[in-house]
Structure prediction request, 312 residues.
Amino acid sequence: MRTYRWRPRAFWPLCTLALVVAALPPWAGAPHAQPAAEGAAAARGEYLFHASGGCRCHTDGKNQGAPMAGGRSIKTPFGTLYSTNITPDRETGIGTWSDADFVRAMREGTGPDGRHFFPVFPYTSFTRMTDQDLRDVKAYLFSLKAVSQPNRPPEMSPPFGWRFPLRYWKWLNLEIGVLVADPNRSEEWNRGRYLAEAVAHCGECHTPRNLIGALRPAMLDAGSAEGPEGELAPNITPDRDTGIGTWRERDLVYFLETGIKADGDDVQGLMAEVIDHGYKYMTGADRKAIAVYLQSLPPIRNKVVAKPKPGK
Ligand code: HEC
Prediction:
């Protein structure tokens, strides 16, 4: 894990090197240097893509939609939104986005045209990822097949469907910036926190939200009755009665690979999807790091009860 400490002495020679390299004519390197570097970035990006849960929200699996072409409906308390096309198609996808555009979208929730994204796109977590990791994810997405499929506008009633208030929403709720490692904790714990809070974005589903749809930081991972798609996301803090305090570390590691809970039941819904299409491809060490981090969280007593469905 990086420490993000400011090291002026190492920084300037690196900058100079970067400038020199950038100034070299394109034919100065080995003939295939560029594609090899891109391939390595895409491979690193593929790992992070899986660690993020496989971006399943961007595939309309129910209607046999093409991977990452968007169009999947996502129900929220504020209305229904449709995920967007994140294939490298130049007209309907993100094919014209630069690295900087992509990093800005993930870190600030702002598109290249200046539009603010609805926070159903979990940029409040992705903002914690490093620039390098974000660029690698982009390299992977750009290695996928471009699919032409126009985006569908959200179906939300005013004022929730308006984008301009999102500027204020972000001002209140979005803390832009990379997660800083805690030097008092182990490397494993820091890796686990980075994965859980930034990449795998566990808290986006497992943390309850306030009236304006923002995560309540004091209730991190304490469970949400109204997760995405209206699904109940249980309390995953180590509280013994209302959370997963009775799970052993190895139960969690096994769960993140197989979806089998400590009591032997199969997990359902969105959690099954993020495991199947993502988390299970993480290394055992990374799944263990997440478990170590989760078990270190303060136990929060919070019994999450499903909201009654309308008409029942
Ligand atoms: C897209 C939303 C989403 C994300 C992201 C997500 N979860 Fe879940 N999780 C759920 C839902 C919904 C359930 C309940 C599934 C069920 O009822 O079978 C669940 C269930 C669980 C359970 C079972 C708890 C129990 O008491 O049965 C654990 C443990 C868990 N998640 C851990 C995690 C961890 C760790 C992460 C991040 C690495 C994560 N989840 C990311 C939505 C999510």
